[in-house]
């Protein structure tokens, strides 16, 4: 479970202050897929980076399975699988070596580590990629390696920043299927997107963020009811107050 409490974060950009997060609070529960939806610049990535411990909030806290990210960042990382907004691969390594490296960073070793790597390659149906260097991999193959490195340590929580960006239909389906399986196991999934259809298709709960604040939250049906709209897309636009920066 991931709990975000009253997060504030500002940046100084060319002497101007940009308020990226302005008191954002929400909870992403176990056994559910929670989507953070918001227009460009709403604060989604800043929120996720604060959650991984990459950024320090000016105010507020993030708890992962009850552990405060500032108090015990290593314990939080053990519990988090991270699929970042920009993923780079070490192209001189094979896919196996890349995943092995991340497993080692999480403190895995020996036979246990090897078994976990073999299992994740099997789960993601990517065994044939294992011993190829990742240079020249397609976007979908790169996505699979990134998923494998995020999940090899079997975290209970999985956080993804705009995961389907740049993926074709097949790769998007692979990713969605994997998220559904992860959810069935009772894990917590939190992902950000500004693609409404993706959020509508995947999420049990939706957190709508606008200007660094919570604009609304609920199931897709609850959000429609709240906005008095039949279509989720119309509800989103109404709740955000604009359709700027939101993709259909
Ligand atoms: N390192 C930084 N320095 C200055 N401003 C920043 C920095 N990171 C984020 N911001 C600003 O904070 C605000 C929120 O940005 P953020 O990337 O969190 O939004 P987002 O919802 O993820 O947007 P997008 O959908 O476009 O990725 C924006 O105004 C952005 O320009």
Provide an overview of this structure.
The structure is a single chain. It is built from nine helices and ten strands. It has 248 residues and is an alpha/beta fold. The chain has a domain at 2-86 and 155-240: Rossmann fold. The strands form two sheets. A six-stranded mixed β-sheet has the order 6-7-8-3-9-10, sandwiched between helices. Strand 1 and strand 2 form a beta hairpin. Helix 5 (139-151) packs parallel to helix 6 and helix 8 (220-227) crosses helix 9 (232-240). The two termini are 29 Å apart. Adenosine-5'-triphosphate binds at residues 11, 13, 18, 20, 38, 40-46, 194. Residues 2-236 form the ABC transporter domain. Keywords: ATP-binding, Nodulation, Nucleotide-binding, Transport. One of its GO terms (molecular function) is ATP binding.
Structure at a glance:
This protein is α/β, with parallel strands linked by helices and 248 residues long. The chain is built from 9 helices and 10 strands. The strands form 2 sheets. Strands 6-7-8-3-9-10 form a 6-stranded mixed β-sheet, sandwiched between helices. A 4-stranded antiparallel β-sheet has the order 2-1-4-5, with helices on one face.
